[in-house]
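Backbones bend. Shown next:

***
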Amino acid sequence: MALLSDFIVLLGFKNMLFSDFIPPTLKTTVFGLIIGLVSCFQGMRTRGGTEGVGRSATSSVVLSSLFVVLADVVLVRLILTLWG
């Protein structure tokens, strides 16, 4: 069984190019940037003690999720246009 799995892995990597790794890496980087920026922005705007922290955490998760979905749509269209 080990030989079969090694063969399948080698066959998969044989057909891969370096350019196959660029779009997913770009998307992951943009998503991380969005989550970090939105969370920091919401955290800096926090007022109202511990209740405010809870509201800010919830709103940062909601806004980050929304912006990540929107960025995914834009990036997929861009990647399909550039890399076909």
The mean pLDDT is 91. The longest helix spans residues 49-83. DSSP finds three helices and no strands in the chain.
